[in-house]
Amino acid sequence: MKILLTGRHGQVGYELERSLQGLGTVVALERSRLDLSDLDQLRAVIRAEQPQLIVNPAAYTAVDKAESEPALAYRINAEAPALMAEEARRLGAALVHYSTDYVFPGNEATARAEGDATGPINVYGASKLAGEQAIAAVGIPHLIFRTSWVYGMRGKNFLLTMLRLAREREELRIVDDQHGAPTWSRTVADSTALVLAQARAGGPDWWRQHGGLYHLSSQGQTTWFGFTQAILEEAGIACRLQPIATADYPLPAPRPQYSVLSSAKLTRQLCQLPHWRAALRLCLSG
Q1: Crossing angle, helix 185-202 and helix 276-285, to 10 degrees?
Q2: Tens-digit pLDDT string for the chain (286 aa)
Q3: Considering 14, 98, 102, 124, which one is annotated as catalytic?
Q4: How many alpha carbons lie under 13 Å from residue 131 in its C-beta half-sphere?
Q5: What is the pTM of this model?
Q6: Which residues 6+ apart lie within 8 Å of 112 measured at CB?
């Protein structure tokens, strides 16, 4: 099986290139060779490579910047996945795509299931939801994994920012009224590979029975403040932490107050997921 992987140098793309190796021949491309904002290039690459599977972790993820660049956010997060789905249909291929907890408004303190009503409150979340809907509308074999608060030991993410700031400053002020589940990029990649191994063994019937939308997020929940506490404890860094409210740290894009995802469907049907604290410990130990 030939697998076309986007976003090779991103947090999840980097891990996927390793995790997918046993499933087929992985053609992993970075943005310089496959820029999702260039739809003509995207179409040309897919037609040249003719993959049996497209795996798309690449995305526009600058949540605040998206408020001032909505057209670019939609092109990368909605129009590009739609084109991938259309080209996959032309090739008879399947598509794996990643979305976000930010498709929900976060106004209820209950873990969200796949069938719950969406209602993004920022451009980023709206653009990701549009991408989900576009893929589903094409009707190809697909998997869409919504995940949350993704971090890892490369790229730009909350974990690396906190490690850097805690070494530079005596005190950090961290938001303590937004709730979610930090999810290690390797958890996302390894879980994807486990599911795709089942798909390869099951053939077309597997996609008909199990394809669709899943939440792929670590077990448990915390706040950004609680996540920071855990990061510093696991890393052995001493730094004073001051909890603050979202209102004390205004940003261009509003954030959901409660964006915990229920991954019960995925864990019941396809694979188990770790608790967020256990995954963080593994991430920082290695």
Answers
A1: 110
A2: 999 999 999 999 999 999 999 999 999 999 999 999 999 999 999 999 999 999 999 999 999 999 999 999 999 999 999 999 999 999 999 999 999 999 999 999 999 999 999 999 999 999 999 999 999 999 999 999 999 999 999 988 999 999 999 999 999 999 999 999 999 999 999 999 999 999 999 988 999 999 999 999 999 999 999 999 999 999 999 999 999 999 999 999 999 999 999 999 999 999 999 999 999 999 999 7
A3: 124
A4: 34
A5: 0.96
A6: 101, 104, 215, 259, 260, 261, 262
d(CA 276, CA 216): 12
Give every CB contact of residue 38 below 8 A, 6+ residues apart in sequence: none
262 DSSP assignment? P
Q: How far apart are CA 43 and CA 224, in angstroms?
A: 39
Q: In terms of DSSP H, where are the helices of the chain?
A: 11-19, 39-49, 70-74, 80-91, 123-138, 158-168, 185-202, 204-210, 224-235, 264-269, 276-285
In 3-state terms, what secondary structure has residue 122? coil
Give the chain's end-to-end CA distance (angstroms, integer).
Answer: 31
- Contact criterion met (CB below 8 Å) for 105 and 64: no
Active site residue 151: no
Residue with tokens 């796949």: 114
- Whether 214 contacts 145, CB under 8 Å: yes
